[in-house]
TrEMBL record:
It comes from the Bacteria. It comes from Gimibacter soli. This is Uncharacterized protein. Keywords: Signal. Residues 1-22 form the signal peptide.
Length: 282
């Protein structure tokens, strides 16, 4: 009996030591809107970020533990300041590398040469869709069509070209809001003439958000996207293990099923730009 107690005690000590060594990998996301994060109580649809975190945790993780962290872009930049500025990785500098940023692209303001300084894993193609008041003719191929108008934009997000430059030059005014509903309300209440929303967000809202689906009926959707891109995961260059784990997940049949549950058409023939556009931060 005493021998069994000793063995059990040793087992508990080993288990505790193993748990203490478990590294927490933060799954970082600054997109508060669906399909990335779903604030409403929809059974089985907590949001892509939560589901990706759960799927990574369920896989063989060799002691890794994954935690979803949703925060504003301003706070995210502050958290990753040393990486974005290029000070990490470097000898003599403490660089915490237990993180993955979901739903990003190299063009969205992660510092110089972000496309080569970080590891990137493709997630799915998406696009920014222009939504305007009826009668307002905006055309991404004619930047002059935006002149004199007001755009409703997400607070803290930098606009894609050429809108970012036009706002800086005073050619376009900007009204900030938080969330898809707030952006549409600014257009519908005549505080702005147009906005843009991610295609996947619009698709999800039409299926699961009756309030937003109704509002979408009162704006016109511009056929040509403002911009198209491949949403990717950004991973520190020092973590090939995290890249391999995420790549294994995105290449599995479960990944396609996950995207389908959220109404994401990952096979759609959208024009996608993989090359960085430095002014395109979101």
């Amino acid at each position: 009996m005493r021998k069994e107690s000793t063995i059990f005690a040793v087992f508990l000590l080993l288990f505790a030591a193993s748990a203490a060594r478990a590294e927490i990998v933060r799954i970082l996301d600054y997109h508060e809107q669906p399909p990335f994060n779903v604030l409403q109580d929809l059974p089985g649809l907590p949001g892509l970020t939560a589901d990706v975190t759960t799927m990574l945790q369920a896989a063989e993780n060799d002691g890794l533990s994954y935690e979803a962290v949703v925060l504003s872009r301003v706070r995210l930049n502050r958290n990753l300041e040393s990486w974005i500025s290029g000070n990490c990785p470097a000898e003599g500098v403490s660089c915490e590398d237990g993180w993955i940023v979901l739903w990003a692209t190299p063009a969205w303001g992660w510092g110089e040469d972000a496309d080569t300084r970080f590891r990137w894993v493709d997630l799915y193609p998406d696009a920014n869709i222009l939504l305007a008041k009826p009668g307002i003719m905006v055309d991404p191929s004619r930047p002059s069509s935006f002149t004199g108008l007001t755009i409703a934009a997400t607070r803290g997000h930098r606009l894609p070209p050429p809108l970012d430059r036009m706002v800086t030059e005073g050619l376009v005014a900007r009204q900030d809001g938080e969330g898809t509903h707030a952006l549409l309300k600014r257009v519908l209440s005549d505080r702005a003439e147009f906005t843009y929303i991610m295609r996947s967000t619009i698709s999800f809202a039409r299926r699961h958000r009756a309030d937003i689906a109704t509002e979408l009926q009162y704006v016109q959707e511009v056929t040509t996207p403002l911009s198209s891109y491949m949403l990717q995961a950004m991973i520190p260059p020092t973590r090939p293990d995290l890249e391999a784990r995420l790549r294994t997940l995105t290449e599995s049949p479960e990944w396609s099923k996950l995207l389908q549950r959220y109404g994401v058409d990952a096979t759609a023939n959208h024009p996608v730009s993989h090359s960085p556009q430095r002014a395109g931060e979101r």
